Each structure stands twice: as structure tokens, then as C-alpha cells.
Amino acid sequence: MTPAKILVVDDEAEMERLIRQRLRKQIRAKEFELVFARDGHEALEKLQTEDAIDMVLTDINMPGMDGLTLLDKLSEIDRHLKAVVVSAYGDMQNIRTAMNRGAFDFLTKPIDFDDLLITINKTLTSVRHIKENLQQLHQAQLQLVQHEKMATLGQLVAGVAHEINNPVGFIFGNLSHAEGYVRDLIDLLELYRSKFPDPGEEIEEEIEETDLEFLLEDLPKLLDSMKEGTKRIAQISQSMRTFSRGDTDRRVEFDLHEGLDSTLLILKHRLKANDRRPPIEVEKHYGDLPPIEGYPGQLNQVFMNLLANAIDAVEERHLHEANFIPTLTLKTSVSEVGKWITIEIADNGIGMSDEIKAKIFDRLFTTKPVGKGTGLGLSISQQIVTEKHGGRLDFTSKFGEGTTFIIVLPARSSEC
Ligand SMILES: Nc1ncnc2c1ncn2[C@@H]1O[C@H](COP(=O)(O)OP(=O)(O)OP(=O)(O)O)[C@@H](O)[C@H]1O
Ligand SMILES: [Mg+2]
């Protein structure tokens, strides 16, 4: 644990010696770290140069800037900074003023050092609570943003899929009619040609001009490829709907491969080549999996987080090293007794140092620039896999070579 940092402001040099001596046990145990200032001005300087001071212990009567003026300035710098004032015994007037200006507590001179320790500990506990609450609030806000982002993405994707579906339906429906009509027309033409093998010069020339033989041969192929194209659009739209399944409060049976594929589809634009790098290859080794029971929308969020991290990692490696083929490898398998399903998402990206490895599941830990990473992806993924699905999320990584994340899920998880 890092020591709590206390700024002591007093014009008497003797006070520094005394406090250091009385608190030496706590200083040696690295519970406290003391910083000293001789008056309010110096205290404000120290607050600028030292990082993260937890509390201020200040005398009231000092030359230069006194303790009461300092109190006013403190609330301007950081309204969560707690100050304890020290005043002469019986100096009620100043003590009242100090409390009104936001002091957390007071001590009287001569200082009772047992009381000093109690007061410091009480103040630091309060500081710690405020910090914890603020951090929790911050995390909750970020988590909300992340959930909101996923929900908005889901709605957007579902909306687009829905919009695409209708026009694709018309095209597909009409194409089969068009195919029938074209076949009839061709048959009719063939009949004409057999009944009137000698249609005259003008028609012969027109047949030559339009390259009728080629046209008759190509038209059915063309219609086939249009059908194939619309089929693919329909599959994409189906995948988009799979990705955005709204199932937050109900466990359902679903196909993990559909989840992985639909997530890859959503990330397709990030896999394509761009002016900085070649395309990112995706290798799939899918096993024969039984359907799994769980929350598909949430597992898709896990796949999204892991795949997005893998893409970031290969892109980062590419910045330093142009000569490798950025590749993501997705592997799924089921244990022999069919109880556990394993999904591996591997990349040959930048990898991680031991120092980074130790922290990746910590909330808010990120090595990415501000605005790019919030450091929530993995902690949320871990929560979804372990708490929501009774599974495990592990990884192995080698710096400069790549990383593999391994999700292990119970095939038919008991209610968790
Ligand atoms: N596949 C990977 N290869 C290398 N480093 C990784 C990989 N996955 C995660 N990391 C490291 O773990 C950190 C935390 O990842 P996490 O997904 O939790 O947050 P993030 O990606 O930084 O931000 P976001 O909240 O947007 O996901 C990353 O910043 C990165 O340093
Ligand atoms: Mg991430």
C-alpha cells in the first residue's frame, strides 16, 4: 500500500522534529509520508510540486500566509482535501473560523500526540472513503457508458438489418419471377428460330449485332449471380440480427459460432487493408459444438472486446514491424465428456510484458491513448464469463509474439 501523504504546515522548526520523532513508527512502516512547509505560501507550493497529498495539518498563527487564509485557498485547489488545524488552547475564535472555512477537525497546542494520531487516522479514513466513493462513481459511469455503447450499437445494427431485409426480400422474390420470364422468352425465341429458320437479312443482322448466342448463354448466369448476391446480403442481415439479439434477462440456447461470425462481420471494416497495413487474416478452426445455454448478447460483447483488443494488438505490432502477416486465429472445441466448451481467440500482435499481464483485468487499466481505450473491456468480459456463465477467462501472452485468450464455458451451465 502506498503511504498516506500528510502536509504539515508550521513555522516552528522544532515542530517538524517533534512530529517526525513521534510518528517515526508509522513513517518507517510506510503508513505515512510527511511533507513540511513553513507557512501558507510554501504549503501551496508543495501542493503543486508534490503529487497526491491526502491531508493537511496546519498551524493557524504563522507569519507570511496564516492557516486561515491557507484554508480558503485549499478549498479552491481541491475541495476534497481535508485539513486539520492546530491552534493555541482556548483560541475558540480562530477555531470556529477555521471550522467555518471547511477545516475537518482541530487540535490544540501543546499537542497531545495520542490525540494527534487518532485525528490523523480518522481524517485519512474519511479521505479514503471519499476517494473510494469517487472511484466507484467513476467506474459506474464508465460501465454505464460501455453498456450504453453496446446497446446503441445493437439497436443500430438491428435497425439497419431490418431496413435491409425488406428491399432484399423484393429483389429476391422478383428475381425468381424474372428467371422464369427469361426462361420462357428464351424458349419462345428458340421456337421461333426452329419454325422460321430463315428470318431474312434485317433480322440476321440484328442477331449478329446483339451477339444473341452470347446473350442467351450469359443471361441465366447473370441472374444466378444476382441471386447469389442477394442471398449473401440476406445472410449478412441475418448475422447482424444475431449479433444484436436482445436477451439481457433470459438464458437461451444458441450457437456460439453464429455469435463469433456475426461479431467478425461487425468488425469487418477493421479487418480490411488500409493505407498503413495489409488486411488482417482470420483463421477459423471450429469444432463440432453442442448448442450452449446463456446470454448471447453478452457473450457477443465478450467476443467483441477480445477481437477488438486482438486487432489493436496486431496493428500496434505492425507499427514497429512491417514484415509479418497480421492474423487472428479462432479455435473452438469441446471437452471429451462434453461438459466444457473452449473458445480461443489468438493474435500474433504486440503481446504483453509481465508488468502489463499482471494488471489487464483491473478496471480502468489501459495502455491505449486517451479516447481510444477505457480499460473496461477485459474486466467486463471477465465478469460476463465468470459471474453470468459460470466459466473462466484465461490468457497466455509473449511480448513481441502474440496473445491467446481462452474462454471456458460449461456446455449447459447450471443457473448462476
Ligand atoms: N490481445 C492483446 N494483446 C496485447 N495486449 C492486450 C491484449 N488484450 C488486452 N491487452 C492489454 O490489456 C489492456 C486492457 O484491455 P481492456 O480491453 O480491458 O481495455 P482497453 O482495450 O485498453 O480499453 P477498452 O475499455 O476500450 O477495451 C489493454 O490496454 C492492453 O494493454
Ligand atoms: Mg479493449
Key structural traits:
alpha/beta, Rossmann fold, Heat Shock Protein 90, 3 domains, five-stranded mixed beta sheet, elongated, binds adenosine-5'-triphosphate, binds magnesium ion
Q: What average pLDDT do the residues reach?
A: 90
Q: How widely separated are the two ends?
A: 34 Å
Q: How would you spell out the order of helices and strands?
A: EHHEHEHEHEHHHEHHEEHEEHHEE
Bound molecules: adenosine-5'-triphosphate, magnesium ion
Low-confidence stretches: none
Strand order of the largest sheet: 2-1-3-4-5
Q: Taking Cα atoms only, what radius of gyration do you get, to the nearest Å?
A: 35 Å
- CATH domain class name of the largest domain: Alpha Beta
- List the quaternary state of the chains: single chain
Overview of the structural elements:
This protein is of the alpha/beta class and 416 residues long. The chain folds into three domains: 4-111, Rossmann fold (3-Layer(aba) Sandwich); 150-243; 252-410, 2-Layer Sandwich (Heat Shock Protein 90). It has 13 helices and twelve strands. It is elongated and about 125 Å long. It starts with a strand and ends in a 6-residue tail after the last strand. The relative contact order is 0.06. Magnesium ion is lined by residues 305, 308-309, 373, 377.
List the helices and strands and how they pair.
Blueprint (H helix, E strand, L loop, with lengths): L3 E6 L3 H10 L1 H5 L3 E6 L2 H10 L5 E5 L7 H11 L4 E7 L3 H9 L4 E5 L3 H83 L5 H10 L1 H32 L8 E3 L1 H11 L1 H4 L9 E5 L6 E3 L1 H25 L6 E8 L5 E8 L6 H4 L19 H12 L3 E7 L3 E9 L6
Parallel strand pairs: 1-2, 1-3, 3-4, 4-5, 7-9
Antiparallel strand pairs: 6-8, 9-10, 10-12, 11-12
Helix pairs in contact: 3-4, 6-8, 8-9, 9-11, 11-13
Bound molecules: adenosine-5'-triphosphate and magnesium ion.
